[in-house]
Amino acid sequence: MLNQTAKFRIGEIVRHRLFPFRGVIYDVDPEFANTEEWWEAIPENLRPRKDQPFYHLLAENDETHYVAYVSEQNLLHDTSGEPVEHPTVSDLFADFDGKSYARKPDLKLN
Question: At 38, phi and psi to the nearest 5?
Fold first, then answer.
């Protein structure tokens, strides 16, 4: 396994490198930590490496809001300066500075 530090941080807004969605990071796994079924559902030619950070996103596209699990290799910094409109953002985050959100100071994570 690689000894790697996550490139992105909690509260940062990112966008997917291949698909038209963006989101705010609310958790990070140092390496793949989802099910094999999830992994195998990804077309083989698009499957990311497991030995990298994976990010939990409150995601959005032009049609809906959802939660996404994305490898670091498939994320880019979002430069739109726009907030994420996912309805759960206000439960986890406070202020938005145009690039990222500040985590609520009283938020207790499991």
Answer: -60, -45
- Note whether residue 109 is domain-resident: no
Residues in the chain: 110
Instruction: Please tell me the pTM assigned to this model.
Output: 0.91
Overall number of domains in the chain = 1
The CATH number of the domain holding residue 80 is 2.30.30
Residues 6+ apart with CB under 8 A from 28: 6, 8, 9, 10, 53, 54, 55, 56
pLDDT-derived band at 4 (thresholds 50, 70, 90) equals low
Distance from C-alpha of 97 to C-alpha of 83, rounded to nearest angstrom: 9
